[in-house]
Amino acid sequence: MVNYFGTPQIETDRLILRKMVLSDANKAYDHWLSDERVSDNRVSAAHKTELETIRRIEKIVSNYPNKDFCWWAIEREADNELIGEIDLYDFDNTTGNCEVSYTVGFHWWNQGYGTEALMAVVEFGFLHMNIHKIAAAHNMDNPASGKVMNKVGMVQEGIIRHKIRNAKNQYKDCAIYGILQEDYFMKNEKDQNCILSIAK
Ligand SMILES: CC(C)(COP(=O)(O)OP(=O)(O)OC[C@H]1O[C@@H](n2cnc3c(N)ncnc32)[C@H](O)[C@@H]1OP(=O)(O)O)[C@@H](O)C(=O)NCCC(=O)NCCS
Question: How large is the average pLDDT for residues 151-180?
Fold first, then answer.
């Protein structure tokens, strides 16, 4: 059975994963939601106005009272810069499985932040929430995301042709990845390799 805790604050070496707040809208818009270099790898189109971002964050914030809503802002601890977001979603209570999605602003790519955030959320999902399996998918023309998944121990399970059609009306083949809780525990020798701390 999955244990739901909502979106608690999670801290890693360099990052604070925390709830989003409305005042994040300006940074979220500037840092990733309006940037086509980022949105080309996501399903949703780049935002054209900050109001779109405000509406999106209002929706996220309104969901925080739900215990099964897990959506974190990724903040850099050193300077409190908002650099991205990560969420667990599509929980299936029959299987205990869910999916993960993540985004880091272009300016902060290739500095290990995506991996650090995903590793923390995977660890939180398996150790604290008792999730059975975490899955994710990336466009075949976005290999950096597959690299991140690999680095946290997710394995590629297949490729689904034309799984998505993006905002530019392009169909994309996607690679599907997953990691089982038992694989995670075997790899990390339960509780001995924790990278995160959870704020009470
Ligand atoms: C995918 C994403 C989150 C990665 O974030 P990040 O902070 O740059 O990730 P990391 O720095 O932890 O790791 C990136 C890895 O990809 C590698 N990489 C970068 N570009 C690459 C490319 N074109 N081909 C292969 N590997 C690539 C980097 O070298 C690094 O691997 P390494 O540590 O072994 O050198 C970020 O690029 C992003 O937000 N993209 C847009 C949104 C997105 O794709 N989200 C995921 C949807 S599934």
Answer: 95
